[in-house]
Amino acid sequence: MVLDIIIAAIGLLMIFFIPGFTFIRALFPRKEDLDPEYGLLYQIALGMAMSIVLTILVGIFLASLGTNPATGKGYFDAPYLWVSLITISCVFFFVGWYRGGYPILGKVHPSLLRYPKVSIAGKVRREDMNRYIELTGKKEVLMKRLKDTERRILLADMKMKDHYESLRARTISEIEVIEKEINALMHGNEPEVRRDYDK
Q: Which residues have a Cβ under 8 Å from the Cβ of 172 and sit 6 or more positions away?
């Protein structure tokens, strides 16, 4: 019973998510390639849609192979479908990794770390790339916090409004500090700014 549920869950992931997501990651290794703020959400949504498309295309391909002489049946069968979807998912995953779409693998082993080839790659020194990625991640978090704070300012009463306006000012200040350090990295300078946001 439990094994059947696990197999069914994996099967749903293989049909509705994994092949398409790895395909989208291979095409757009950086989530910022799709959208600066909601890039990951776009990757997931497009991945789900592309998984369905890829499954249909694989099914059409298997059905077009005719009859298997050994079994007398067609190739559009569960084992062949599983093998096909797993194979293309592995190929797309490898391409996505090669293009730098999975920097988190660097935590598994340093040799697995690859950076996406983006316009800043030629501007930021190789040894500064980790710091650049870390800073852009922090900036993204702060931008979301700023957006949320501005929404809360509109909804808050007078007492809480002062608190949120103070939080907004601090957040803007932290974003400016991060942007200065990012600019310093992109121009090959040693950043000379404080790093309160690292605390």
A: 146
Kindly report, residue by residue over 157-174, the tens digit of the pLDDT: 877 888 888 898 899 999
Q: Is 29 helix (H, G, I), strand (E, B) or coil?
A: coil
CB under 8 Å to 191, separation ≥6 — which residues? 180, 181, 184, 185
The pTM of this model reads 0.60
Closest CA to 136 of 37, 41, 42, 44: 37
Contact between residue 20 and residue 53 where contact means Cβ atoms under 8 Å apart: yes
Instruction: Give residue limits of the domains in the chain.
Output: 2-110, 119-198
Task: List Cβ neighbours of 92 (8 Å cut-off, separation of 6 or more).
Answer: 19, 22, 23, 25, 26
Q: Could you tell me which of 114, 92, 112, 101 has the C-alpha nearest to residue 17? A: 92
Q: What is the pLDDT of residues 83-117, one digit of tens each?
A: 999 999 999 999 999 888 887 887 777 677 676 66
